[in-house]
Amino acid sequence: MKYFYWFIAAALVLTVLSVLFVPGVDDFVEQTFQRYLGQAAR
After folding, report:
1. Can you tell me the distance from the alpha carbon of 7 to that of 24, in angstroms, rounded to the nearest whole number?
2. How far apart are CA 18 and CA 7, in angstroms?
3. Is the overall model pTM greater than 0.90, yes or no?
4. For residue 23, what pLDDT is reported?
5. How far apart are CA 5 and CA 15, in angstroms?
6. Are 29 and 15 in contact (CB under 8 A)?
7. Closest CA to 28 of 9, 15, 12
8. In angstroms, rounded to a whole number, what is the distance separating the alpha carbons of residues 18 and 27?
9. What is the DSSP letter of 1?
10. What is the pLDDT of residues 1-42, one digit of tens each?
């Protein structure tokens, strides 16, 4: 379970850094979350 939390933390840090420094990634991240949240709301 400890590795799961490390993986989540690393994925979150990588996502934030890529959104800040790589152009176009923010749109991809937003679309991915919208798709995931849309499925979860059903």
Report:
1. 24
2. 16
3. no
4. 87
5. 15
6. yes
7. 15
8. 11
9. -
10. 889 999 999 999 998 999 899 888 889 888 988 998 887 777
